[in-house]
Amino acid sequence: MALFDQTRFLERVNQDGEFQIAARYLNGALKLFFGEESLLLTFRDGRLASLVPGVMFDSAEVTIRGPVASWQEFLKPVPRPFFHDMFAAIVSCEFEWFGSSETFFAYYGAYRRMFQLMRECAA
Amino acid sequence: MARHDKTIGRYVYLTVQGIEYRVYYESAGEGIPLVCQHTAGAHAFQWRHVLEDPEITSRYRVIAWDLPFHGKSLPPVEDAHWTRPYNLTRAFFLEFITAFCAALELDQPVFMGCSMGGQVAVDLAAEHPDQFRAVIGVESSLASPGYYLDQWYHPRISNEAKPATMYSLCAPTSPEKYIRETIFGYSQGAPMVFKGDLYYYSVDYDGHKVVDRIDTSRIPVYFLTGEYDFATSPADTRALAARIKGAKFQEMTDNGHFPMSENPVKFMEYLRPILGEIAAR
């Protein structure tokens, strides 16, 4: 699965000023499902510390899941309406999230910026 | 010499439901009154581009207020508002708008509102058709259930969550500088206000109950909705317009839920012809 350049994405996130502000004090993990495959993103003190393939017993504060075709639309430079942002896509498209409401809403600004950078690193 | 904006800010005292409020409003231009209602949790800043538009202000006196508890309209001093939850009700909202227009002696103003302002445009058309020249509902729908949620006012979630999610409601093609201005406004609201406003938007408003009473021969009704608005989608507004005979609806490209502030240049392309049509009546 190569929906985006993961090495470049990791660098971009940790160099990004907006992300650094929005993610301050963020610790824990975010698991992303691209269809059946997954990635575990681990944050340490507001930095994206690692990005590794997910395994069955991963522990994550927040999980976001979507079909591969929906991710492909989401990661386009200008997606069609409601795929343009993860919160929009969760409300209106085939994405879903579960986990800690506190973390999701407190850090939605960080997640949102991170997904923008993922879009910029899309294949 | 200093460069000033043409917009002037003032305060007016209004009594609504027996309580006096000191209400801030901004105005610019001369002509037909055009009163503008901001979205939930925001304030009059959202209308600054309409207030600054020379073509519009050459024919219209544009007025945008901050609802009580919003922007520069402080809570009332003679009421223990802190002892109960803040919730914007339909009854208060309608009485406030009509009291404001009466206090300024506005002669049949045009009402324009966005989001909760778009919903109250529908309520005004049903309840006060002869007091307004026309209504323009921006991002209006028949109903918008499911948004009166605890996360919008929770001690463990800061005011940052609101602007972050309001960014989601903007179009990816809107200018970044104006998206940032739009969401900055959302970071300025008192903590309880956004959720409290959503009481009207998501609970107290029900267009199904009033649309059959709207007579567009008495009050013209216009709707505009941005293509990227997932809270009130173009399909939602289309369904609303279909229930009101004679109502006019246009979907706006390159806009989301806050067209007047997130992409004002594009918004004006849709708004100016409507205002021209109303002025020519």
Structure description:
The complex is a heterodimer of chains A (123) and B (281). With 123 residues, chain A is α+β, with helices and mostly antiparallel strands. Chain A contains six helices and five strands; from the N terminus they run H-H-E-E-E-E-H-H-E-H-H. Chain A has a single domain (6-120), classed as Nonspecific Lipid-transfer Protein, Chain A, CATH 3.30.1050.10. A five-stranded mixed sheet of chain A has the order 3-2-1-4-5. The longest helix of chain A has 13 residues, at 108-120. Chain A starts with 5 loop residues before the first helix and ends with a helix. The model of chain A has no long low-confidence stretch (mean pLDDT 96). Chain B has one domain (8-280): Alpha/Beta hydrolase fold, catalytic domain (Rossmann fold, 3-Layer(aba) Sandwich), CATH 3.40.50. Chain B is 34% helix and 19% strand. Chain A binds chain B through residues 22, 78-79, 81-82, 84-88, 91-92, 101-102, 105-106, 108-109, 112, and chain B through 151, 154, 156-158, 160-161, 163-165, 167-169, 171-173, 227-228, 230-231, 233.
Q: Any low-confidence stretches of chain A, pLDDT <50, length ≥5?
A: none
Level-1 CATH class name of chain B: Alpha Beta
Largest interface, and how many residues on either side?
Answer: A-B, 19 and 21 residues
Low-confidence stretches of chain B: none
Judged by helices, strands and strand pairing, the structural class of chain B is: alpha/beta
CATH fold naming of chain B: Rossmann fold
Count of separate DSSP helical elements of chain A: 6
- Largest sheet of chain A at a glance? 5 strands, mixed
CATH topological fold name of chain A: Nonspecific Lipid-transfer Protein, Chain A
Q: Beta-strand percentage of chain A? A: 25-35%
What gap, in angstroms, lies between the N and C termini of chain A?
A: 10 Å
Order of helices and strands of chain B: EEEHHEHEHEHHHEHEHH
Overall geometry of chain B comes to globular
Spatial arrangement of strands, main beta sheet of chain A: 3-2-1-4-5
DSSP, total strands of chain A: 5
| Structural class designation of chain A | alpha+beta
